Amino acid sequence: MDKEQEKRIVKRFFAKRIQDRVIFELSSEKKRVEALNRLCHDYGKTLLPEYMIEIPTPNSDYQEIATLLKKQGAPNECYVISWNEEIDGKKLSLNEALKKVIGYGMPSIVSCIEGSLAYFEAEQEVGSPPRFLLKR
User: Fold this and answer.
1) What is the pLDDT of residues 84-134, one digit of tens each?
2) Is the Cα dihedral 63, 64, 67, 68 positive or negative?
């Protein structure tokens, strides 16, 4: 896991009142799940809404989302914070990350440009999960 990268993501997109706590939770093996849990139902209070751009439906094609991110300047490599342990805390190609994140059912952040552009997928409750560009 890249703690500095995660710290930059938190400082740019998370509410100020919880930033220090989330950074602590992400850096702890035991507490990491608590940080990820904040992105489930309460993501609207956890993330800064002014930087969240909802991706209109239909929005479950990873290639279309990759194209959308690339139009915003996303490189081919990204960093992932995810409930999916297989990819959590790893650098992956944008396409590989999106394939594993989209439709997983639990929250993930795919950081494309450190602290400036990311993809966020919330927990799936009913229907397709909310999906957002995080852009600053």
Assistant:
1) 999 999 999 999 999 999 988 899 999 997 779 999 998 876 667 788 999
2) negative
Query: How does DSSP assign 49-93, residue by residue?
Result: GGGEEEPPSS---HHHHHHHHHHTT--SEEEEEES-TTTTTEEEE
List the beta bridge partners of residue 117. 113, 135
State the virtual CA torsion across 88, 75, 128, 33 in degrees, nearest 10. 20
Q: Which tokens in the block code for residue 120?
A: 């966020």
Q: How far apart are CA 21 and CA 51, in angstroms?
A: 20
Instruction: State pLDDT tens for residues 26-83.
Output: 999 899 999 999 998 788 899 999 999 999 877 778 899 999 999 998 999 999 999 9
CA 110 to CA 82: how far, in whole Å?
Answer: 8
